[in-house]
Amino acid sequence: MELQHLSHEHPLVFIEERSHESDKAYCSGCGELVSGPSFGCVECGFYLDKKCAEALSEINHPFHCNHSLKLLVSPPYLGSQGFCDFCDKRCDKFVYHCSCDLDLHIKCAFFSNNIAEKRFGKVEDIPHKDPLISIENRFEKLKESECFACWKPLSNSAYLSLDSGFRLHKKCADLPTEINHFCHSQQPLILQFNSKPLPCQIFQRTQHRGIVYCCSPCEIALHIACVELPTKINHLCHRKHPLILQSNPKSLPCQICQETQDKGLVYCCSTCKFSLHVSCVSPPPTIKGEIHEQPLTLFWRQVSFICDACGTTGDYVSYICSTCSLIVHEKCISLPPIIKFPRHRHQISHTFILGQRGIKTWKCRICPEEVNPQHGSYCCSDCDYIVHANCAKEDYSWYIFDELEKTDEQLDDNSIFVVIKETNLGENINTSTVTFVKNQEIQTIVFTIVQFVTTQLILNALWEKTHLSSSGVPTQKGIIRTHSLSPKRSMITLNAINVINPA
């Protein structure tokens, strides 16, 4: 039996099974080892397993109702392999493609179609694996593995381990294909690939792979996990009233992370003006950060405190280390232990105890206020240099760091300025690049000037954008880059975009 396949110029001969185990061949359609019946061209060493060889040239997929998917020998992107919208891995062989830029590996198309058509047989007949049972560190590996439908960790609940390495939560194998949800009462939501892709109406994050509940005409999407959220909860942080899943029109800050979420839904008590983000309802009981050697434990009590990491107040949920008597904001646990600080020639590190550093002056080098030695801050172990934790974090966010392999011999010790370069970006826009080095005092002075100039450039650009006609020149924000050279020196590059009035 022969088959003329679109992927190969010669007829493919049917092969019942491989004659020798050493005679291994890989399927040119899915890339997997051919183990059963297949079609092949022995002369060219081209093989397709039976399922890939007999795959339809065009299919209608239940998870993509708008268009049909066409089988292509390779992704239709010049100079790019593309990514599968189901497993998020590269596509370099057969792919089912849609004109709306949806791409699926051939095996991912088969597997996801089985999910939609419920072709696993009875879920009860498939061996289940309990993620709570740890065998040969399997539980640790599960933390890094995810369900192919909802893309939540497999360790969350019982799961099914199916053929071809696909894994699926037991509950995700039996999802309803259509639901009604209070977030979108006008029309039902259909289980679909998120090909747009659309952000979740509750969580406000976009899931690019797997499947979501979606209303394509209204461009509404909900994550599978968010659909399962209860509409009303009782919470330890607010025992007076239940919290209702609703919008946040008054922009109430979350009482755990203190961030404000204007879009999406939150758990809220409108009477008490109390709000919790969906992601903050169940914070991790312990967190291991890099600024402290021991794990920090969640403290549910809503009491006023001063954070030992940054020195500012808080009146919401905190994390504590009972051994060291530390209490910190949740967001401060992720503070970097070491910062390559553009204002100073050395790295500065976070510390909870300043007295051991021999600091002579407690004045913050960024803001004019003093640093309280009773709380954490950033300082230089080699110099009398200290800054507030929040000042360092905010100032640090203004910079983009590039590592360059340069030595001190490449720099001119007799001058602050080493390189001056001007590049024309267009008729009315030019960019100036200034690179300079020197000691700490000079850097501090120059950086003050640089920040002032950069601020003025941004303000001028915004003014131009507001007052020029629609044909005016678009503005761009200035960028400052710091390049690490050696423990003794740093090099700073200022890229300032200047907008010139066409008039």
Query: Could you give the order of strands across the largest sheet?
Result: 30-33-34-32-31
Q: How many individual β-strands? A: 34
Q: What distance separates the N and C termini?
A: 77 Å
The low-pLDDT segments are: 122-128, 130-137, 399-440, 465-503
Number of helices: 6
- What do the pLDDT scores average to? 75
**Which of globular, elongated, flat, extended, rod-shaped describes the shape?**
elongated
Structure characteristics:
503 residues, five-stranded mixed beta sheet, four-stranded antiparallel beta sheet, disordered C terminus
Secondary structure layout plus pairing:
Elements: E1 2-3, E2 12-15, E3 38-41, E4 46-49, H1 50-53, E5 58-61, E6 64-72, E7 95-98, E8 102-105, H2 106-117, E9 128-129, H3 138-142, E10 159-161, E11 167-169, E12 178-181, E13 184-193, E14 211-215, E15 220-222, H4 224-227, E16 232-235, E17 238-247, E18 265-269, E19 274-277, E20 286-287, E21 296-299, E22 305-306, E23 313-314, E24 318-321, E25 326-328, E26 338-339, E27 348-351, E28 377-379, E29 386-388, H5 389-396, E30 399-403, E31 417-424, E32 429-436, H6 440-467, E33 479-486, E34 489-499
Parallel strand pairs: 30-33
Antiparallel strand pairs: 1-2, 2-3, 3-4, 5-6, 6-7, 7-8, 9-10, 10-11, 12-13, 13-14, 14-15, 16-17, 17-18, 18-19, 20-21, 21-24, 22-23, 24-25, 26-27, 27-28, 28-29, 31-32, 32-34, 33-34
